Amino acid sequence: MSASPELDIRWPIGLLFAAIGALVSGYGLFHAGDAQPLGVNLNLWWGLVMLLFGLGLLWGARRASKS
Questions:
Q1: How far apart are CA 10 and CA 33, in angstroms?
Q2: What global pTM score does this model have?
Q3: Please, what are the averages of pLDDT over each run of 10 residues along the chain (67 residues)?
Q4: CA of 24: how far to CAs of 18, 36, 56, in Å?
Q5: DSSP readout, 7-66?
Q6: How far is CA 40 from CA 7, 27, 30, 31, in A?
Q7: How many CA atoms lie within 13 A of 58 on its CB side?
Q8: Cβ-count burial of 50 within 10 angstroms (0-12 exposed, 13-18 middle, 19+ buried)?
């Protein structure tokens, strides 16, 4: 059973994670001096994690649509 590339769920989820990750990491960059638990900028790091996850989903969706 193979789904058509038009119905690949990785596109919207990847876009969502990439957009939210970019926003959260940007917030972390511009508010780096605010209160941080244990001295770690959690907004920056988790934003980057979400951004990389979203880009990974988009890369996988694009790779699947080429074949």
A1: 35
A2: 0.84
A3: 70 97 95 82 95 97 85
A4: 10, 15, 17
A5: G-THHHHHHHHHHHHHHHHHHHHHTTTS--GGG--HHHHHHHHHHHHHHHHHHHHHHHHH
A6: 39, 14, 14, 12
A7: 13
A8: buried
